[in-house]
Amino acid sequence: MIIPHPSHLARIPGHFTFDATTCVRASDGAQGAADLLRTLLAPATGLPLRPSPTGRVVLALDPELGGLGAEGYGLTVGPDAVLLRAARPAGLLHGVQTIRQLLPAQALSERPESGVAWRMPCVQVTDVPRFGWRGMMLDVARHFQPVSFLRRFVDLLAFHKLNVLHLHLTDDQGWRMPVAAYPRLTEVGGARSRSMIGRSGSGRFDDLPHAGAYTAAELRSLVAYAAERGVTVVPEIEMPGHTRAALAAYPHLGNVPGRELDVWTEWGVCRNILGVHDEVLDFCRTVLGEVLDVFPSSYVHIGGDECPVTEWEESPAARRRAAELGLAAPKDLRGWFLGRIGDFLIEAGRRPLCWAEDSGTLPPEFTVMPWRDTDHGLAAARRGHDVIMAPHRSTYLDYPQTEQPGEPLGQAGGIVDLRAVHGGETVPADWEPAAAARVLGTQAQLWSEFVPTAEHAEYLVFPRLCALADRAWNPAGDWSTDFLPALLRHEDRLAALGIAHRTIPHPAVPPHTPRATSRTTSPRTISQ
After folding, report:
1. Other CB atoms within 10 Å distance of the CB of residue 511
2. 116, HSE (Cβ side, Cα atoms, 13 Å)
3. pLDDT digit string (tens) for 241-271?
């Protein structure tokens, strides 16, 4: 059983076995997928899968398969040969991941596995995703993660046929994006003196410095690595709010002349935001110009939400700017600010993307991510925005997974369990067709206030991300007859990948009751 659930899969008699004599034949344009297949299978199997014009494993691009779209593929596994076809290279990359899931779980190991018959069942698969945007947002601003973890995360996304890694690179608590024109952004903004213990407002701190930043070379390498696996890396640079780290590095970008700030050590929404004078806009354009040099993604995320306007209301310069622009109040500067930055990105050939926390007006050229609820997504679509659905009650993986006392600390306000993620509707059935057509897809979010380690991140993400991947690829997949049986078998794959994940609920076990297994992680083993 495959996750995400294929559009169409039929078993046919027999098995195909990979062995030392198995060769791969790749048509023009299919070499990248063939190389990926070799790269992914080599560590565990040791099989060379040499290229050969007579190879029994055939990977072929066929433009006439237009019905498969940009990412669909057709896979036929017979007893004597394997044929993987697609209209575009991305489809072949997804087909490679299906081949990996059809093989024994040991094929996913990073270590050599002996005594395993590398065989897979004969099948016929025709598989096309419902949505073009299937992603995961990873917050590396609150808690920095090394690029080695980001590469592993890319591999895990690709394995589940997710195609976007959204990197949240800057926030009040840290700036991780290198900017040659403004080196203090990482030198000063990339380090905070301590971190809050517990949720926002706890008043308790750990007094442990936290720092980290990427180099441009590391990020370019990540982008290339992800592209080879069919994943696009989308950068996010927050503005005009969530910018305390930038203001710590360059105080003159703020609203109070002569004020010195540190990198924020609390959680929540900081009241300090960027000013609206011309130097601030020049700063933002310069920063984004360097971002565009590193990330070729069509989309660039600029945050845009949770922007307290108290400082603008108190600032003579901001009030004067609002009056000069003919705005009714300083709060309207947010829309004006985003519009100027959006214009810059559009002129550079990119598409501006931002969070939508309410149904208020945003510049029409923005693609929006509604995170509060689906009604905000509907309102945005009706206003003509393209929409990527991210409602927090079904996509925020930093919420606790259960009500168990030992569950790691997460966002307050309830739980987001596996069933809630799989039950999330990217396009609710009652949306009118015109609004539904505006939905590009969906993605999960992992905000990292309470996620200090890579192991902790994986525990929160899996298996919930499997549920989101299933719904984003094939919303017709049923929880009880399709997804849950497949997920129970998928657990062996997660274990082979070395993923520290929460126990997968067994149908015979009541909800929120742990099931003993040596392959999963108890919540008590994850640091709070």
Report:
1. 10
2. 20
3. 999 999 999 999 999 999 999 999 999 999 9
CA angle 30, 498, 23 (to 5 degrees): 30
Q: Which fold has domain 8-127?
A: Chitobiase; domain 2 (3.30.379)
Q: Which of 306, 343, 357, 365 is catalytic?
A: 306
Q: Residue 471 phi/psi, 5° resolution?
A: -70, -35
Of 124, 133, 118, 134, nearest to 37 by C-alpha is: 118
Quick check: 168 and 175 in contact, CB under 8 A? no
Domain boundaries, the chain: 8-127, 133-525
Residue 491 appears among annotated catalytic residues: no
Q: Of the listed 127, 171, 238, 398, which one is catalytic?
A: 171
In angstroms, the CA 198 to CA 267 distance is 9
The residue from 143, 242, 456, 501 that is catalytic is 242
Q: Among this protein's residues, is 242 annotated catalytic?
A: yes
What's the CATH fold of domain 133-525?
TIM Barrel (3.20.20)
Tokens encoding 128: 């096309």
Q: Cα–Cα distance between 288 and 334 in angstroms, integer?
A: 18
Low-confidence ranges of the chain (pLDDT < 50): 509-528
Catalytic residue list contains 305: no
